[in-house]
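Record 1 of the preview.
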Amino acid sequence: MKYLLVLGVVLFAVWLWRHNRAGEAQDRADERARRSPPSAPPHAPVADMVACAHCGLHVPTGEAIAHQGVFYCSDAHRRAHNA
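->
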């Protein structure tokens, strides 16, 4: 009879150990999900593109050089086109 009681205590201890391990695994998974970075970074705003009048290269309007209503990719192309 005492072996049956010892077996019952051992089985209960094993069940309790496994039950606690499952809870810890779930807690670790929740913590990992909370610390993960966002899925996608925000995109940069779209810039309007213009073609260089000399070589045809497309550049953003913020980087283009405008001269008399015409856009160029560099100052050297502006001078070469006007020469």
